[in-house]
Amino acid sequence: MRKASESIQFTKQPYIEDVGPRRIESIKFSMFSETEILKAAEVQVFRGVYYDPSKKPIDHGLLDPRMGPPNKNGFCKTCHGNFRECPGHSGYLTLALPVYNVGYLSTIVEILKCICKKCSRVLLQEKDCRDFLKKMRNPKLEPLWKKELQKRVIKKCNAMTGSKKAVRCSRCGYVNGVVKKALLGVQHDRAKVVDNYLEKCSSALSHKKEFKGKMNMPSVLDAKVVHSLFRNMLDEDCELLYLNDRPEKLIVTNILVPPTAIRPSVFVDGGTQSNENDTTERLKRIIQANASLRQEISESNLHSKSLTSLVDVQMEYAQYINSDVRGIPSHMPAAKPLTGFVQKLKGKAGRFRGNLSGKRVEYTGRTVISPDPNLKITEVAIPILMARILTYPERVSHHNIEKLRQRVRNGPNKYPGAKFIRHPDGTEISLMFSSRKRHADELKYGYIVDRHLEDGDAVLFNRQPSLHRMSIMCHRARIMPWRTLRFNESVCNPYNADFDGDEMNMHVPQTEEARAEAVMLMGVQNNLCTPKNGEILVASTQDFLTSSFLITRKDTFYDRASFSLMCSYMGDAMDPIDLPTPTLIKPVELWTGKQLFGVLLRPHAKMRVYINLTVAEKTYSKPKGEKEKPKETMCPNDGFVYIRNSELISGQLGKATLGNGNKDGLFSVLLRDYNSHGAAVCMNRLAKLSARWIGNHGFSIGIDDVQPGNELNEKKKNTISQEYRKCDEFIHEYEHGRLKLKTGCDAPQTLEAQITSVLNRIREETGNVCMQHLNWRNSPLIMSQCGSKGSPINICQMIACVGQQIVGGRRAPNGFIDRTLPHFAKKAVDPNAKGFVQNSFYTGLTATEFFFHTMGGREGLVDTAVKTADTGYMSRRLMKALEDLSIYYDSTVRNASASIVQFVYGDDGMDPSQMEEKTGCPLNFERLFMKVKATCPALEQKNLSPSELCQLIDISEHDLTPEEGWSNALRKFIEESKGCSNAFATSLSKFITSKYEEMENTIQALKLDGGLHGSEQLGYLENVASNISGITSQQLRAFLKTCITRYHSKKIESGSAIGAIGAQSIGEPGTQMTLKTFHFAGVASMNVTLGVPRIKEIINAAKRISTPIITAVLEYDDNVILAKMVKGRVEKTLLGQIAKSIKAVQESLRAKIVITLDMKTIQDSQLAIDARRVKESILQTPKLKLKDKDVNVLDERKLQVFLETDRSKIQFELQSLRNKLSKVVVKGINSVERAIINRYTDKKDGKEKHNLLVEGTGLLAVMGIQGVVGQKTKSNHVIEVQQTLGIEAARKVIIDEIQYTMSSHGMTIDIRHMKLLADLMTFKGEVLGITRHGVQKMRDSVLMLASFEKTADHLFNASVHGREDKIEGVSECIIMGIPMQIGTGMFKLRQSMKQPVELIYGANPVIH
C-alpha cells in the first residue's frame, strides 16, 4: 500500500500542516472482555514449558517467539524485530472454568448484594430504581458523588437482605439470602430463608440409592454461576450500580499472557540454565492447575464433582494478580514468594514511584564536598576526573568549530577532550579508538560533539534530603585538580551542608533550553532568598563572621601597607580601589577596620552603591527601663551597626548584619536596593578577605579558654548554694503543707514548677557571670558574640555548670521505686536527685550526673530519628496535595483542572520571597525613608512644615484615588499607585502620619512654636529640628515613588508553582522542630501539644486531638469572683465533689440513699447549687433510670433517693447506685475536663485581666454560658470550629494554629503559605485532611492518586467505573513524560516565520 502511494505523482504537493509530535490527551480505564483478549493476542499459550533441549523456545509455550524475542539474541516471529525494536505481543490462555479476579472481588460482592440470584435484576422497588437512576444520569455529577450514590444503593439493598425476613425479588419471587465475601470466593447464606426449596430437592432425589436423607445446599457461589448471573443483568441496572462496562468482564475466562518483553528470560551458568521472571513462573503454575482441572472435568461423573483443581486455579490466579492475598490454603507450596502484578506497581520501589514519577538518570556525578572561599558563590569546582566522564553535546557552528576540532583531537582521555561525534543522520562515532585527527578535520557545521565539561558550563548541584527548592541550584563549573566537589561556604546554608564527610550530587543539563532554564530559574544568584519568608539564605557563616567581627573592633588600626594589602585580598588585587581618607594622620597615617568595610561595599568612587541600614547586633546593650532612652550608635559595646551611604559609621559586624535569617542585614539590603549581582559580588569579596585575613591573623581555641578563674568559681559556688537553699525551703513548705499553690496545679506540680524555675535561673546567672569575667580575646566568647558558633549557654556549660537535665519536658523521672537512682533516698526531690548537674564539662561530671546527662542526650537522639520519618511523610503528603496549584494569568490560584482555590494569592498577590518587612509586609518603610534621606540630601531646600505634611496625609488617606484640588506633585504618584492593595495604602498612610507626629514632637521639645527664641538662635534650632525629623517635598516625592515602584515589582509572577513552594515552606521547618513539646499556655499544668504532632493533627484534620483547648473571653475580665462564677458554670462538677456525705440507709421495707450537700464548698466555688438543682440533675442522668417519685428533697441541703428492688439483690444495688450517684454531673459541661482562670497583662492598657482556659471540647456550650463573650471565644479544634461556626472560621483556625505552632518554635513562615494550605483544605465546603481520604476528594486524577497511596485499589476502581484521566496535573504529566502546565509550560510561544513586509515610502504613483 505504502509503495503504491509513493508512486503517485502530484502536480502540486498537498499541504499537510505540521502539528509537531502528538500529545496524549487522556487515558480511559476499562476492563478487557474475553473477545477483546482474543483480539489482542497473537498466540494461544497452553504449554507450561519454556525451552526445548536445543535452547529454543517452544511454540505455544510461555516464551513462544510470537510474543517477542525471549532474550537478547532472539527475534520476534510476529514483527521480525530484535530485542531492542520489538515492543512485545500478548498471548492468551483459556481457562477451563471462570475464576474471580481478586482485584475486583469486593466489587463483585457489592453487585451480588444488590441483585436477585435468580433473575439478575436489582432488588430495589421500581420507583426507587428510577429515582436513583435519574440521579446517577445527572451529567454534572462528579465521580466521587456517583460513588456515594452507589454506596447508598448498596446500603439500601444490604438493609433489605440483612433484615430478619428474607428479601423476595419483586420480579421473580425468588427469596434471597445474605451475600458475604469468603476467602477468594463469595458466600450466599440462605440458612434463614424459609421456603420449601430444600424439601422439593429432597423429594426429587429420594429414589436414588446414594441419597442419605437430609439435603444441604452449598452456600458458596461459583464463579461460573456468578458469570451467568452477570450476563443476564440489564444495562440500566449496571448504570444504576455505577458500572461503566458489562459486569461479566469482572470474571476471568481468558487470561492475557503478557509479552516476554516485560518478563525477560535470562540464561545463567554459562547458558545452561534459564532464570525466569516471577510472572512467567506463576503463569506456568496456572497452566498446570488448569490442565489438571480440564482432566477432572472430563473424567468425573456429574454428581460427585468436587473440583479440587478449581480452587488451585483460583488460588494461583489470585496470587498472579496480588501475591499478598489472604486465605492461601496450607497445602499450597510457599517456597519462594513470587511477586504479583500489584506488588510490581505499589510502594516506593514499584513502577509508579520507582520508575515513572522518579527515574535513575545519566550525566550525574557524586562525591565528597569541601570548602573553597576563593570560588565565587555561583561556582562549583569539579574534579578533572569527573569532567572527563561527564559530557555536554555541543553543536558545531562557525563560532566554535576550531575549539571542538581541538577537543576531538584530544579524545576521551585527555582533558579537555571529547567522547563522541554524532552526525545529523543519527550515526554515532566513538573517539576512543578511531582516528581522531581525521574526524577533527572532517568536522562539519551541524555535527554534535559530546565534549568534556569546561569552565562556565551550567551544572545542577544538589544535596539530599532535598527539603526545599534551594536544595538543588545551578552553579557554573570550574574544572580543578583533586577529587572533591568544592564550593564557597556561604552557600552551605541553603543545602544545609557541612564538610564532615557529606556527599553531593551533580547533574549536567543536556540541551540549550535546559541550560537557559537552569541558569535563569535555578541559578544561585536568583535564589539568594527563601520563599518561606523572604529571608536571605546565602550569606556569610562561621569564619567569615568571626574575621569581620575582629576586623571591625573599635581599637583595630592598620597602616598604609597592611590596609592596602587587605584591600587587595578582596578582589585578588585585580579591582581598582580608591583608598579612603585615613582616620589618623599624625604621627602616622592609620585606617580603621571599619573603613575596610567601606572599601568592601564601594571599592571606588565610580561605583554608585549607597547602602543605608541600621542593625542591632547581639552585643547591643538595650535600654533597661522604659524611661531610659535607647543608646543606638553610642552603645558602649559597639553593638549598633549604622551604615550610611556605604560607610560603616559604628558597630562591630556580626551575624545580624552579615549572616542569614535577617531581613535588615547587609546582603538583604544590597539585594533589595540594587540586585542579586551586587549582593553576590559583595559576598565573594568578603569571603576572600575573611579567609586570607584570618589565615594570617590566626584564630584557635585551647583548654585555657575554658578554664574558670578563682573569682568565677567562688561566685558559682555562692549562687548554687543560695539557690539550693531556696529549693530546700520549697521542699520543707511542701512537706508541711504550707506551699502556696499555683493556678490549676496541685502541691507536687507546684513544687516541681517552683524548683524548675529556680534551677533554670542558676544556669542563666552563672552564664552571665561567665560572660562578664572572660577576657575579650577569649575564642568561645568571640564566636558567641559574633554569632558564628555557640551561645552563652554553651560557654556556661563548658566553664561553670552544665545545669538541669530535662527528660520528656520534666526533670529526670524515677527509674527505681520512688527515686531516680539507688544512690539517693526514697522520695527525694532535691536538685541532685532529679538530674541537676553542678559540675562543668571542664571539671568533669560525677557518675550520677553523667547518667542523668546521658538520659537527656538519648532523648534528643531518639527524637531526631522519629522526627525524620514523621516530617518526611508529612512533606510528601503536603507536596502531593499542593503540587498542581499555580497562579493563572487572571491572578487567581487554581489547581490542574482549573478549579479556583483562591481569587488572589495570599489576599494581596505578593511574592513571599520578596517581602522586606519581618512580619511579611512588602516594604520596610523606616529603612526606605532613611535611605531616601541619606541619598537625597536636603541641601538648600526648605523642609515641609507639619501643616503642609498634614495636608499631604489627608490626600493619602483617600483610598489612593485622585480627586480635585490636589497638588500636582502627588497627583502623578496617586495615579501610578492605583494597583496597590488597601492594606499597603493604609500602612503607607500610617507611616507618614507617624512622621508627622515625630515632627510635631520635635518642634514641641525644642519649643520652636512658642516664639521664645531670637532669630539667630531660632535658625540654629530649626536646623537641628530638620536634621532630627525634617523632610523636604523632594524627599517625600522620592520616598513615595520608591515605595510604589517597589510594591509593583514585588507582585508574584503568573505561572508560579506556589503550591509546591507552599508545601516545602511548611514541610521544611518541620525537620527543625522538636517532636514532643508541651507548651504551658500561661499556666504551669496546662499542656498544649506543639511541634510536629500538632502540625500533623492540623494537616490531617483529626476528629480527635490530644489537647483541645477553648479560650473563653469573659465579659467582666477584671473581676476574679465573676471569673470563678463562670468557671463553676463551665467546669464539670460531680455530686461527689460537693456532697458532705452520701449514706446508704437500709430500712425494713425499702432502702434509700441520703445525700447531704457541703454548702461551704458550694459557696466558695461560687456555684449556685441546692438540693432541687441536684434532683433535676439526677433525674436527667439516663443511666440511673430514676423517676420523680424516687427522689425526695428534704431541705435545700439534703435529699434522699429511694430504691425499690428484690430483697436478695438490695445490698449490691444500693452500693452500685451510691457509686453512680457520686458521678452525677450537677453543673457544667459534660465534655469539659477542667477550666482554669488564667491571669494575663493586657498589651493595650497594661492592666491585669483574666480569661478562661477550658480543657476539652464543647465550644457551642461554652459560648452559650452567661458571662462569656461568645464572639471572641476561640477553640484550637478545627473540626469542632467547623461544626459550630462554619467553614470560614475553620479556615481561620487552621491558619492561626499553624502560625502559633511555628512561632512557638521560633520559626517565621509567610502567612500566605498557610492561607493557601487552609484554602485548599476548605475550598470544597468541608475540612479535608491532607491524607489519602482528603486528597481523594480534592483530586479526580486516577494516575495522581495511584502514585500517592493505595495504587492497586485506585486502578481497579477506575477500570470498574470507567474513569478518564485528562492528564492535566503535575504527577500525571511526569508519569506520561509530557511537559506540565506550570511555570514556563503554562503558555505556548509562537514565532512569526514570515519576512517583514517592505514598506515603500514616497509619492503614490497612481495619483500622479
From TrEMBL:
GO biological process: DNA-templated transcription
GO cellular-component term (any): nucleus
Keywords: DNA-directed RNA polymerase, Magnesium, Metal-binding, Nucleotidyltransferase, Nucleus, Transcription, Transferase, Zinc
UniProt enzyme class: transferase
CDD domains linked: RNAP_III_Rpc1_C, RNAP_III_RPC1_N
Main location: nucleus
Keyword Transmembrane: no
Localization terms from the record: Nucleus
Domain RNA polymerase N-terminal: 248-552
Taxonomic superkingdom: Eukaryota
Name of a matching Pfam family: RNA_pol_Rpb1_2
Molecular function GO terms recorded: DNA binding; DNA-directed RNA polymerase activity; metal ion binding
The reaction(s) this protein catalyses: RNA(n) + a ribonucleoside 5'-triphosphate = RNA(n+1) + diphosphate
EC assignment: 2.7.7.6
Family assignment from sequence similarity: Belongs to the RNA polymerase beta' chain family.
Protein name, as recorded: DNA-directed RNA polymerase subunit
Organism this protein belongs to: Olea europaea subsp. europaea
